[in-house]
Target: Protoporphyrinogen oxidase
Amino acid sequence: MGVSALPAPHRRASRRGLLRPSPPFSKPLLWAGLRDLTAPQSRDPDETVHSFAERRLGPEVAALAADSLCRGVFAGSSQELSVRSCFPSLFQAEQAHRSVLLGLLLGTGQSSQPDSALIRQARAERWSQWSLRGGLEMLPQALTTHLTERGVTVLRGHPACGLSLQAGRWKVSLGDSCLEADHVISALPASVLSKLLPAEAAPLARVLGTIRAVSVAVVNLQYQGAQLPVQGFGHLVPSSEDPGVLGIVYDSVAFPEQDGSPPGLRVTVMLGGSWLQALEARGCAFSQELFQQQAQEAAATQLGLKEPPSHCLVHLHRHCIPQYTLGHWRKLESAAHFLAIHRLPLTLAGASYDGVAVNDCIESGRQAAARALGLELDP
Model:
């Protein structure tokens, strides 16, 4: 299972943007840095990303950069998402050093991150993105093979229908059958797990049920004989410019070896945000044609790719990205307290809690397994 990685480009420091205005900003970013260095420290236990960015870096950075970043990572709104939970390094930087810039430069005194030969290679080669040569689906495939070869039974196509506790052991209902377990590690979305828990775990279910998730449509487009007008990993789109398009990834720049034969320019358009939420609220029927049209219009308008694509793939991922809204950390504390007080043999893992990226979910699983086994992890 080989890894494909894209090294971060070596850039000569540029004064443009820092000392002179650079679109889309009307002022040099130096002013945002000076604002951060002089702004007073907040004592609030949490804050929305928008409020945090506006207070420390100014209204333009909040409306353009923070807004776009939240849409690109969480497909959510910076005015709803929690800075403490979504971008903990920024929150901790201010708490530790009264300034985001100083905190990021000096460190926040947090515990060291996990280490391995692959992590050291990534740091040495300055990876900015990584994938697997056969696609990320190779990861669960390899895990399944690894486990089944060691006698572990992997059930697929058996959705869990309910959980009940009997004499301290879990009974997991699978519809036509059931299984018993001493301990359950759940990587289900929090809102899904909340509907499976037994009555005695109703307080936990209520907390988990408030962690909602949003849908995202992913449209892969390939163009023959086309070129990008710019180079880079991709771009994000602020909600003020297009409420439906979250951003566009330049796949051919990141991983040109996957361009096929004959090679064609590949981009991925991410659709979501308030546009998709409004369609869902109205109960509108979604179609591949709708998403393809939106994606092609975005590629034409933003990248000048006006010719029809030679290939198009559309996938709608419903409720796929959890939203860490203001006060998310309190929900996690409440859930952990309930599990500890009642000594439930249940461990929570997955994207609903401490990070939505693939790397975060892998680390979440590692920690969940260690907690279930009563082990201490090496850093």
Notes: DSSP finds 15 helices and twelve strands in the chain. The CA atoms of residues 46 and 327 lie 6 Å apart. The chain has a mean pLDDT of 90.
